[in-house]
Amino acid sequence: MKPGHGEVVIAEGDVELPQDEARLVAEFRHQLDAGLWAAVPVAQDDGRREAMMVRAFEEVPRDAERVIFFPRAAGG
Amino acid sequence: MVLAFGVSALVAIALMSDMVLPRLRETWEGYRARRRLVPDVLYPDPGRERRAEQTARELLRSCVGDEEWAMYRDLGLIRVWGRHPRAHGGGEYAYLIYPHRPVIAYEPQTRRLLGEYCVEFPDETRPYGSSRLPDSDDVLAKWMLLTGDEHRLLDESNMHLPGRQVDLAQVTRDLWRISRWEQARMRELAAG
User: Which of A5, A49, B52, B139 is such that its CA lies 20 to 30 A from the CA of B121?
Assistant: First the structure.
């Protein structure tokens, strides 16, 4: 998420392909190092939607379609 | 005679320069200012903001549930149910998420307002000069944090008594609008 942009695709790839996975891991770390938070939207078995906050690439479900990075929260 | 004329001319030029030079300098600086490139951060492009919001709405729609999306589309806010009973004294509670306004906690049964959580998601890289996410991205960020890690939102935000930043009358009206909206939606769903 970016001001003036909305959603911006940072990287795409298949985690089953080693070179893609390495690129995705690097980009994931880069975003977190830049101070962003990461979340994965998921659907529960009962259809309920929620997000899963992740702090490491290993926490991202292997079948996740996307990870959303957004600026960290600050008290307003 | 020539000397006297020369001196007079010099004095006249010196006096004139006091009057003319500032005018010349002003004119030159005005000319330069008009030619200078003005950064577009001073004049946000409404088209870009609109496109960003459109993109953000699509992302929000793809993440939240059907009911939450319909609520946002129709009412401009999203209700998220609280999941940690101890967070608000043990009873059932929920949150109202508004774009770029505090998150409101309340008791659905009594409609009693419990608190307002002031939280922002500033992007300090300030692309295009603004740190502010599009409205729907702000809503999505709050939704993700509330559904993914409610405690983190409560920890990071500044909690105030209801009414500090939000208009209590408007929140009360919104709660009434939600109940009306839900009744209408139930009727619609029942009618198939």
Answer: A49
Is the CB of residue A53 less than 8 Å away from at least one CB of chain B?
Answer: yes
DSSP state for residue B96 in the 8-state scheme: E
Flag whether residue B128 sits within 8 Å of chain A, measured between CB atoms. yes
Sequential DSSP letters for B115-149:
EEEEEE---TT-GGG--PPPHHHHHHHHHHHHHH-
- CB-based contact (8 Å) between A65 and chain B? no
Interface confidence, given as ipTM, is 0.94
pTM: 0.81
Selected for mutation to probe chain A from B62, B133, B136 (highest A CB count within 10 Å) is: B133
